[in-house]
Task: inverse folding
């Protein structure tokens, strides 16, 4: 057989599983990494003089400004503006138009592809405006130009006539003549290599990592010089230096060097020596590695600033440049918060000087109420974007200040930069350890650029509107492919909270350096006009979050919370007596009824308090409150808290029963002492599939627990049946005696009556009565007619030393109603008699638990609060000994449990911040008196027959547990129930502090309208760089491959997107 | 007894019609006597798996025999001391020893007959279509090699005492065929329990925990090998259905596997998937009654940090942990990327498992190696389709540092840090490329030696 066939077979064998790919159409690009811009076309050579008819007109490259001017709106005569000297002269030859060209660097191939578009206003771009040109029409396909080995950056020289690439593979520069590329002579493409040389004339043979160039000159009318001109800055990480290079000669004119401590020095000469990384034998020394640069000339102040970042240095260096674009004076170093000393910077952008603040829909740099500011945005290795004020403040800004704490602030200047480390800077949001901007999702920031977005003439979009950008914004690309927009100065949105309508101006949408929100109509209210001037409406839940047009509106729950629970414990007629989310009375134009305090129809002030930090609220998620519920709700496509059912090993020895997981997940899971561990064994329905090979899922014949077998060696199961009987027939529910990161000590668990008062029982008789009451909960009979049989089990009112020690009603140790027994026959099903008590879980012999053990971690005597996207929030960490402890420094808003009892709330506490008059956080959760609005059943007098109407709206004083997490505040009312006297729901009982809840009772609601970050409507695989282009256009360089699995999309090797800052839906795509 | 074609009833269930054709052709054609079709012990034939001894003294090579020209695959031992001496003489003085010639296309590369470097008689014969090699340090200067072979399917294991490999207790002859005890096809070597799932693919061996974990390319299963020091290796546990099938293609598979050092109990195992963007963690439980150890399923996480915006990130291949265990490097085929996951522990003592950096790489990436040759750690990724080795600098946001042309069909890559060399199997040309990774070397990141005669196209 032909060897090629065999090789083909072998190829398949080696690579089977390869992704299905669609045959690509003709691809123009191959992993683009950078772009530079040029202008080419007709140019009258005026040499700075007035235009005359006899001056030469060339087709040539020219300063970018020539095209920028041509991009301005046409005049009343539909004439395209031109640079001075390029005007039409009567009787003279017309100057041909000039057009933009983009030079797209493709690093892996060492080539430059060329794109092209007409100069016109940004508002005229619709898509399809930018095309890729063929650099060699005589060769099939669209071809690009070879420039060098592993080029990492491209920039346009000062004349606009040359493109310069910095080549990491050959440690030199390539200089591409723009005219030779764009003109019609295909044989004349000029690419020259140029070494960078120090003052001694020695080539710098270090590998560059970044390059920026001075902007091109603005004067139009000069012929291209023979050589490239101007200054470029080249970063050499292994040399710990940035060199200012005169590209005309390649000579270094100045440099900025780092010492080992990160101190910078400006050298006004070319005496730089670097290790040879391109064929030499010099070894690289340790030290700061500059890899990121940004260069900006502010159009108003004309300040020229160069920012430098190193990937192993927690600071940003800013060097002011003089008229010759060379360093002026000493560099400024701005330290970034760097608690572990590992911070670095990988990408940078500098803003212009901005007049901060303003909301009038116009850019007001001269009059912004927050004064002037200029910022450096730095992509940091802690996966945030750090912000530094480099004008007046000169410090890093904290972008994560908790909005609760600045709600009433009116100082726009202060709100534009909360200085990191300043005593006056309020605390951060819960869980935020970095002052930087954190992106939404799992992607990490990769690149950043800053754009100015001017208002569009005749823009019909409402104000404010998510995609209507007016002001200054940062564009941040992320590794996940999403490209985010960050508000720096949004001049179309309020700067402070509107006291008359607090939901109108959520602070995360108002202040600087925040991810931009993508949901429109945040100010919608439940009123007849949809605004604050209408009459209230009660029968509304707000916009449909699943509408085809997308969600809108502010935070709210979609429908009233729902209750679900395991069957058999409570009759349907009594479910409404279980704890619920606090309700208010809505007195609207359409109805008068109870409404949830988390709902759309709640009063504005309440909505504002219920959702105090929009940024900390997921866009849309379902919250569940499950009594003694699992600490995880992860599913096969959600990974937040770890699997709900885990695998571990049980070790039983003289020190007790140890549940071991070598991966050490327990503190991370948030397990606490006295929590419940429910062993899950195996499910006999699955046969032996839950067990290792050689093991059987064994169910003891006397077990009354459905679905709970145990994996046992097939050869041992029968032999161990007796020895393991109590273990195998029990519920296998245990108490956490001690939790460490890799081990939980399990305690046997006695059965405690679920209706034990939360402040403890009084005596055995009370327990007996409460046991009888517990049984009646499942009865649908009206209480006065209920004939439910009495509980036959015995209870002892005693302290359970194996559960959480609490203080009882009398100040002594809390006593619980514990089920007692003489034999297992005295116990409820699933409990076994050991030591006189009915046990839910017992300590088995080791031989019973040699197999892998499946188990679930559950909270104890509390509702577990889990968001489907937020997960279970907690503050557990591991101490030095590996013990799970509460992090004393963590925010009290990181909480995921609501107990039935809690410390009383401090009446002086600010309802928004949760801080007491003393300035400390109040207990969270805490107990509070509330008035619950609800419909109470109405009965005909002295009977349980429904009256007419069947229910009456009442406002009932009760108690509740106030709960605050990082995005939401609500109260769970009625943690206990007094019982009924005659009829369902009459609350005429005399029970005190007796809970009605039981394990598995669940409240759930869907919250929507949370923060949804605005991302550009593009789908790159890996947007490695974002570049600001002509007309404040946004260029996304997608260097990632896209492997299509549909016939409608080709697989591509990277793409380039052009997005208009003022019209984000106007997209040009090159691929 | 032959390692692969002994018993058709126990042959693997082939995943592709082409494989079926292949085996039919092979069984029809292989009629020569055993001695006539025994593989040569001084050549590479479709080399796949590679491993370096912990002391960098020798290189173990798995020959897949993908052409089925021979009756079995083989494990061979390459003396890296000899490799270095030839390379050093070549790079220092352009010395070309007998049996070598200068590569006319790549003048910095020497091409030498593999017989110069292979320790003749030190190898053993194994099943066909070996895919990977893991080395377990069994103490006292002895090693154990664990080798998944897809042709049977089976897991071969062989002990190395410093001179020769051994996997047949009934003979001491050179290049012996591994016996049944060294060719694991059943759980606990008991045909009544369960067979090894199809397509064993990648393997990780834990010297501390004394076990190995094997992934299966077409079933999504994960197999645990109990390999105690001084005792025989056995298949201890098989977890089926660890991963879900791709909803579009129906493809399912477990692919890369790596271990994060985790103290005395061994490693925390991370397994990647061909069909999901999920990384599944495992640990190994050892019952106190000395029953067979078993796999304990742990947490999992998704590769949402890269490519999520363009359809998700699936088809993980090579996986390696940094020496500290604080970073996991993984090669993903869709989108083609090298992703770096922060696996350092958080305040709660659990790995963070968060993407910290990523970079676009070639398509059809296969395996990777990590090495700090003196200028900081680099990740080296083989590009099967493009014949390249990508060098990625993981610092900062991670970026491609270099692209090295290494030969046709590069698959496995391993590093010998003390020698500052990388070794790459070129599956399609029967060679091993030796790459100089020494910073400052004139041949830095270049193939300086190609071991083996290049198979013509």
Result:
């Amino acid at each position: 057989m032909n060897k090629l066939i065999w090789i083909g077979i072998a190829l398949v064998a080696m690579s089977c599983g390869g992704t299905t790919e669609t045959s690509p159409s003709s691809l123009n690009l191959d992993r683009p990494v950078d772009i530079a811009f040029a202008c080419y076309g007709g140019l009258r050579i005026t040499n700075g003089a007035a235009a005359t008819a006899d001056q030469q007109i060339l087709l040539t490259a020219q300063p970018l400004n020539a095209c920028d001017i041509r991009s301005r709106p046409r005049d009343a005569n539909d004439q395209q503006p031109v640079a001075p000297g390029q005007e039409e002269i009567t009787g003279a030859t017309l100057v041909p138009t000039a057009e933009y060209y983009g030079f797209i660097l493709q690093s892996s191939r060492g080539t430059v592809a060329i794109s092209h578009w007409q100069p016109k206003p940004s508002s005229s771009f619709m898509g399809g405006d930018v095309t890729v040109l063929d650099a060699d029409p005589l060769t099939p396909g669209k071809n690009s130009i070879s420039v060098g080995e592993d080029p990492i950056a491209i920039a346009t020289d000062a004349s606009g006539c040359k493109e310069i690439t910095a080549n990491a593979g050959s440690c030199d520069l390539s200089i591409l003549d723009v005219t030779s590329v764009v003109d019609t002579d295909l044989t004349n493409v000029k690419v020259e290599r140029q070494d960078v040389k120090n003052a001694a004339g020695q080539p710098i043979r270090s590998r560059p990592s970044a390059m920026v160039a001075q902007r091109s000159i603005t004067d139009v009318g000069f012929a291209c010089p023979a050589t490239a001109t101007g200054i470029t800055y080249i970063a050499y990480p292994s040399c710990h230096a940035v060199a200012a290079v005169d590209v005309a000669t390649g000579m270094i004119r100045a440099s900025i060097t780092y010492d080992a401590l990160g101190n910078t020095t400006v050298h006004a000469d070319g005496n730089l020596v670097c290790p040879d990384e391109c064929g030499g034998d010099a070894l690289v020394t340790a030290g700061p590695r500059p890899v990121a640069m940004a260069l900006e000339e502010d159009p108003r102040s004309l300040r020229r600033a160069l920012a430098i970042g190193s990937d192993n240095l927690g600071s940003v260096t800013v060097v002011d440049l003089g008229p010759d674009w060379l360093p002026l004076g000493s560099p400024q170093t701005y330290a970034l918060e760097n608690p572990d000393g590992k911070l670095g910077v990988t990408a940078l952008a500098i803003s212009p000087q901005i007049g901060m603040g303003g909301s009038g829909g116009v850019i007001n740099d001269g009059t912004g109420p927050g004064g002037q500011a200029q910022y450096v945005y730095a992509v940091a290795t802690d996966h945030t974007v750090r912000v530094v004020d480099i004008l007046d403040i000169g410090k890093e800004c904290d972008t994560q200040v908790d909005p609760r704490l600045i709600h009433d602030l009116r100082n726009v200047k202060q709100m534009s930069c909360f200085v990191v480390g300043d005593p006056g800077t309020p605390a951060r949001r819960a869980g935020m350890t970095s002052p930087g901007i954190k992106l939404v999702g799992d992607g990490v920031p990769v690149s950043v650029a800053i754009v100015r977005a001017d208002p569009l003439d005749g823009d019909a979009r409402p104000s404010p509107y998510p995609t209507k950008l007016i002001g200054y914004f940062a564009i941040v690309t992320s590794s996940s492919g999403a490209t985010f927009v960050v508000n720096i100065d949004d001049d179309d949105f309020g700067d402070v909270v509107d006291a008359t309508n607090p939901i109108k101006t959520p602070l995360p949408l108002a202040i600087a350096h925040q991810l931009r929100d993508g949901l429109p109509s945040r100010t919608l209210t439940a009123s007849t006009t949809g605004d604050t001037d209408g009459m209230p409406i009660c029968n509304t839940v707000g916009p449909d979050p699943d509408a085809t047009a997308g969600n809108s509106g502010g935070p709210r729950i979609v429908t009233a919370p729902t209750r679900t629970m395991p069957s058999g414990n409570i009759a349907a007629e009594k479910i409404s007596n279980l704890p619920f989310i606090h309700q208010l009375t809505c007195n609207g134009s359409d109805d008068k009824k109870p409404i949830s305090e988390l709902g759309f129809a709640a009063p504005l002030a309440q909505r504002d308090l219920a959702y105090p930090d929009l940024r900390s609220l997921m866009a849309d998620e379902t919250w569940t409150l499950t009594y003694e519920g699992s600490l995880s709700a992860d599913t096969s496509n959600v990974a937040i808290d770890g699997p709900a059912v885990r695998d571990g090993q049980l070790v039983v020895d003289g020190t007790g029963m140890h549940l071991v997981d070598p991966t050490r997940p327990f503190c991370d899971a948030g397990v606490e002492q006295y929590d419940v561990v429910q062993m899950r064994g195996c499910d006999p329905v699955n046969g032996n599939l839950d067990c290792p090979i050689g093991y059987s899922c064994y169910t003891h014949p006397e077990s009354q627990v459905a679905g709970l077998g145990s994996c046992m060696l097939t050869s041992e199961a029968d032999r161990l049946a007796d020895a393991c009987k109590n273990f195998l027939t029990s519920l296998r529910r245990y108490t956490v005696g001690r939790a460490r990161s890799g081990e939980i000590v399990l305690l046997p668990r006695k059965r405690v009556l679920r209706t034990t008062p939360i402040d403890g029982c009084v005596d055995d008789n009370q327990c007996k009565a409460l046991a009888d009451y517990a049984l009646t909960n499942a009865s649908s009979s009206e209480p006065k007619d209920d004939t439910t049989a009495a509980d036959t089990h015995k209870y002892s009112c005693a302290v359970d030393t194996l559960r959480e020690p609490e203080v009882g009603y009398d100040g002594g140790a809390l006593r619980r109603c514990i089920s007692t027994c003489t034999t297992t026959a005295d116990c409820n099903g699933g409990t076994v008699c050991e030591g006189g008590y009915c046990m839910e879980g017992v300590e088995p012999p080791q031989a019973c638990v040699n197999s892998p053990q499946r188990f679930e971690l559950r909270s104890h005597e509390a509702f577990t609060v889990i968001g489907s996207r937020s997960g279970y929030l907690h503050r557990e960490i591991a101490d030095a000994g590996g013990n799970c402890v509460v992090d004393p420094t963590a925010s009290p808003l990181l909480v995921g449990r609501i107990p039935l009892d809690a410390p009383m709330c401090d009446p002086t506490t600010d309802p928004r911040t949760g801080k007491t008059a003393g300035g400390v956080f109040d207990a969270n959760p805490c107990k509070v008196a509330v008035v619950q609005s609800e419909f109470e059943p109405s009965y005909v007098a002295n009977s349980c027959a429904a009256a007419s109407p069947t229910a009456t709206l009442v406002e009932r004083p009760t108690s509740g547990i106030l709960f605050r997490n990082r995005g939401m505040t609500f109260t769970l009312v009625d943690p206990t129930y007094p019982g009924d006297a005659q009829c369902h729901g009459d609350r005429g009982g005399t029970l005190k502090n007796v809970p009605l809840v039981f394990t598995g009772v669940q409240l759930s609601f869907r919250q929507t309208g949370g923060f949804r970050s605005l991302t550009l409507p593009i789908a790159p695989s890996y947007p490695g760089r974002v570049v600001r282009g002509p007309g404040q256009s946004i260029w996304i360089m997608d260097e990632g491959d896209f492997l299509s699995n549909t016939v409608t999309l080709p697989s591509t090797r990277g793409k380039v997107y052009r997005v208009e800052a003022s019209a984000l839906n106007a997209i040009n795509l090159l691929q | 007894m032959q390692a692969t074609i002994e018993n058709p009833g126990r042959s693997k269930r082939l995943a592709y019609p082409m494989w079926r054709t292949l085996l039919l052709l092979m069984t029809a054609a292989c009629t020569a006597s055993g001695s006539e079709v025994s593989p040569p012990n001084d050549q590479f034939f479709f080399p796949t798996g590679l491993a370096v001894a912990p002391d960098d003294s020798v290189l173990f090579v798995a020959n897949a025999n993908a052409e089925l020209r021979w009756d079995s695959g083989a494990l061979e031992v390459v003396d890296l001391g000899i490799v270095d001496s030839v390379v050093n003489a070549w790079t220092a003085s352009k010395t070309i020893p007998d049996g070598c010639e200068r590569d006319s296309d790549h003048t910095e590369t020497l091409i030498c007959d593999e017989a110069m470097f292979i320790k003749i008689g030190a190898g053993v014969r194994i099943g066909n279509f070996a895919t990977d090699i893991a080395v377990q340090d069994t103490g006292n200067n002895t090693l154990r090699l664990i080798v998944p072979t897809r042709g049977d399917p089976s897991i071969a294991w062989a002990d190395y005492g410093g001179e020769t490999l051994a996997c047949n207790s009934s003979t001491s002859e050179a290049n012996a065929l591994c016996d049944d005890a060294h060719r694991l096809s059943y759980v606990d070597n008991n045909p009544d329990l369960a067979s090894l799932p199809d397509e064993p693919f990648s393997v990780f061996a834990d010297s501390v925990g004394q076990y190995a974990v094997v992934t299966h390319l077409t079933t999504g299963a994960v197999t645990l090998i109990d390999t105690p020091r001084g005792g025989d290796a056995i298949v201890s546990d098989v977890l089926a259905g660890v991963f879900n099938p791709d909803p579009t293609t129906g493809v399912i598979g477990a692919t890369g596997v790596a271990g994060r050092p985790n103290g005395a109990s061994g490693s925390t195992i991370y397994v990647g998937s061909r069909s999901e963007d999920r990384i599944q963690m495992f640990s190994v439980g050892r019952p106190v009654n000395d029953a067979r150890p078993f796999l304990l399923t742990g947490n999992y996480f998704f590769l949402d940090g890269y490519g999520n915006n363009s359809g998700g990130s699936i088809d993980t291949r090579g996986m390696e942990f940094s020496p500290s265990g604080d970073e996991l490097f993984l090669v993903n085929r869709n989108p083609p990327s090298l992703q770096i996951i922060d696996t350092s522990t958080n305040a709660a003592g659990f790995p963070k498992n968060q993407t910290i950096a990523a970079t676009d790489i070639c398509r059809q990436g296969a395996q990777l190696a990590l090495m700090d040759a003196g200028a900081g750690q680099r990740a080296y990724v083989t590009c099967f389709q493009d014949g390249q080795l990508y060098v990625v600098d993981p610092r900062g946001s991670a970026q491609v540092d270099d692209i090295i042309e290494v030969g046709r069909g590069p698959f496995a890559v391993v590093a010998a840090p003390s020698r500052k060399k990388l070794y790459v199997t070129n599956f399609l040309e029967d060679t091993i490329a030796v790459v100089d990774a020494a910073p400052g070397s004139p041949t830095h990141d270049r193939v300086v030696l190609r071991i083996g005669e290049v198979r013509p196209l």
Remarks:
- Chain A touches chain B through 96 residues (CB under 8 Å).
- DSSP finds ten helices and 63 strands in chain A.
